[in-house]
C-alpha cells in the first residue's frame, strides 16, 4: 500500500486566513499537537516576513523533532538565507522555494519571462541546497499555466537539486480529472522518479479535497493540507478530510498515511480555539453535527446498528460519542433510549405521556437538551392526579400600571369534570395578577411563599423552569412548571402546587366521618 506524506501548512498558509494572527507560543503549541497527530512535514512559517515569524520557526525547529520542519522562501537570496537561519537547529530541515508559473502571474506580479523564471528557480534551488539537503520547489498557479512550461520548469528544478516538486492549484481553479492529468504528466518529466511529487489545492470552488485525492491517485505521494481547511479566501485542503477519506476508503484508494486518527478531534479544537475560527457545525469529520442524528429513522437505525448511518466511529477520531439530537424529528425509540441513558426506568404509560409532552415541546424548541427532558420527567413523576388544568391565560402589563390577568381553568374530575372556569385578577406585577386569577378559578386558598426561575439549557430558545412554594392549611407545597414562555411556566408551577393543595383537601374530606354509625 502506497504511503502518502502529510505536509501541514496550518502555521503558514493557514495563518494567512483573514483575521488570524498566532503568537509564537500558540504556534509552538499547535506544532507540538501536529507532531502528536503524526504529520510528516510542518511548514512552520515564512521567516523573511517578520522577526516574529522568524522566531516562531526557529523555536519550532528547536523543540519539535520528529516531523520535517519547513520554512518558505521566494526565489530571493535574502529569503533563502532567512529560512536557513530559522532552520539552523532543526533535526530535519526543509527550505520550500516558490515562484509563479501562470501567464497572469508572470505578467502582472513578477514581470518576468518564462526563461527568466526558470533561471531564477534554478539559482534559488542551488542556493538552498548549500544549506539543506531537502528542498521543495513550487510553481504558483500551475493549473492556469501552459503544461509545456510547467514540465520544462520542473525538469530544471529537479536537475538543480529539488527533492520535492509541488504542484499548486493556488486559486482553486481546477477539476479532479484535469488535475490528475497534469500530475500524470509531471510523473513523466525526466528525473521525476527520483523526487517526491506534492499537491497543494485551494477550495475556491469547493473542490480542494476532491482535487487532492485525484492528484494522489494519479501518482503524487505528498499532499499539502491545513487543519479545519483554514487558509486564504475559501481555505486549503482539509487535513482531516483527506486523512479520513484515505483511511475509511482504503479499499478504493489503496493509500495510507501516518496520521494518528484519535488526535484529529483534539487538533481541530486546538486550532479553532487559538485562531478564533469556529468550525461550521456541518463540517465533515470535525463539525459538531458530523456524528449527530435527529431524524427518527436515522436514530432508530443507529440505535440498532451504528454503521447503518455512520461510516466512521467518532471515538476513533477523538470526537466522543454518537449524538442523538432530541428534536421534532426524533422517534419514540430514541426518546426511550434517552430516558434510560438519563437514569429513568418508567412504565410504558408514563413514557407515552412523556413522549407526547416531549413532542409538544419540540414545536417550541429547535433542540431539546438533556436538562429539558429531565425537567419533563420530574414534572411528570412528581405530579399528583390533577384536579385542574390550565386551558388558556392572558396577561397584560405595562410599566407603572397594575397588571391584569385572565385565565381559563378546566376541572378534570368529579361532577364538574370538563367545566372551564374563567376568572380575572389585578396585581402589582404580572405574576401576582396571574396567581390571583388562578386562585379564584380553582377556589383553593393559598399563600405564595417562594418563587424562583432558572434557564433550562442554553440559547435564545431555552426553557424557563419555575419552582414556587405555597402555604396551605399549615403545610408547604412545592410546584414546578417548564415552558419556553416564562409566564406559562409560572402558571403551570402555581397550578401544580394548587393541585397538590386540592388533593390534600380531597383526602381530608374522604377521611371525615360520614355521621352514620356502623351496625
What descriptive keywords fit this protein?
alpha/beta; Double Stranded RNA Binding Domain; TIM Barrel; 519 residues; three-stranded antiparallel beta sheet; elongated
CATH superfamily of the largest domain: Aldolase class I
The number of helical elements comes to 17
Q: Could you give the order of strands across the largest sheet?
A: 2-3-4-5-6-7-8-9
Structural class: alpha/beta
- Inertia-based shape: elongated
Total number of beta strands: 18
Give the fraction of residues assigned to helices: 25-40%
β-strand amount: 15-25%
How is this structure best described in words?
There is one protein chain. The chain is α/β, with parallel strands linked by helices and 519 residues long. The chain has three domains: 2-275, Aldolase class I (TIM Barrel); 292-369, no CATH class; 388-510, Double Stranded RNA Binding Domain, CATH 3.30.160. Helix content is 40%, strand content 21%. It is built from 17 helices and 18 strands. It has helices at residues 24-37, 51-63, 77-86, 103-110, 114-129, 147-160, 176-186, 208-217, 239-248, 250-253, 264-275, 296-304, 332-341, 348-362, 370-381, 430-442, 486-511, and strands at residues 2-3, 5-8, 41-45, 68-74, 93-100, 135-140, 164-169, 196-201, 222-225, 255-256, 292-293, 323-324, 388-396, 403-411, 420-427, 447-456, 463-472, 475-483. The strands form five sheets. The protein has an eight-stranded parallel barrel with strand order 2-3-4-5-6-7-8-9, surrounded by seven helices. A three-stranded antiparallel beta sheet has the order 13-14-15. A hairpin with a 6-residue loop joins strand 16 and strand 17. The longest helix is centred in the C-terminal third of the chain and has 26 residues, at 486-511. It is elongated and about 105 Å long. The model is unreliable at 515-519 (pLDDT under 50).
